[in-house]
């Protein structure tokens, strides 16, 4: 198994361990996206993981093909293990949100039975930023589970006893995150990442 596969296992443990809310559909639609340079560049978190955000190209790598409304995120740990995410920024009700989607985690020749049981999903987080600092806060899945079990929220989802997977449309997801964006409980035990510019 190549080192990047170990990083994928780490990422699954970190991002998909039940600590955050994940969704089958993205938080955004194409009309929600806008050109921006908020994330562009290299950042580092408290675990010395490098977060490098770049705009992708649609087609050939020509200036006119640069997609400045989306990002490719390369996560590289201190052992140089790397994984790749597609990231989109949207703004809802005066707040900024990030939608993450795992793009690349295994080489094709490394596919095995375990690989066929892994389905990448979207995660989304609220974030705040200054020129040299980004704070990212993911919604907490335990908090969501309590809301669902207490019939305090109605949102399309699947629950297998261990994990909740939201299956709501982007429009309904946006209503959900907007409603609870100021809730301390929503983020209290969720994952937080604080990035500083390199």
Condensed summary:
The chain is of the alpha+beta class. It has helices spanning 3-15, 141-149, 170-179, 184-188, and strands at 22-23, 41-44, 50-54, 71-76, 82-92, 95-104, 122-129, 133-138, 157-159, 164-166, 192-197.
Give your account of this protein's structure.
With 198 residues, this protein is of the alpha+beta class. It has four helices and eleven strands; from the N terminus they run H-E-E-E-E-E-E-E-E-H-E-E-H-H-E. Strands 2-3-4-5-6-7-8-11 form an eight-stranded antiparallel β-barrel. The protein is globular.
Which terms would index this structure?
19% helix; alpha+beta; 198 residues
Please identify the oligomeric state: single chain
Distance between the termini: 31 Å
What would the principal axes of the Cα set say about the shape? globular
Specify the biggest β-sheet: 8 strands, antiparallel, barrel
- Please provide the count of β strands: 11
Mean pLDDT: 85
Query: What fraction, in percent, of the residue positions are helical?
Result: 10-25%
Number of discrete helical segments: 4
Strand order of the largest sheet: 2-3-4-5-6-7-8-11
What is the N-to-C succession of helices and strands? HEEEEEEEEHEEHHE
**Radius of gyration from CA coordinates:** 17 Å
**How much beta, percentage-wise?**
25-35%
> What structural category do the secondary elements indicate?
alpha+beta
Low-confidence stretches: 1-14
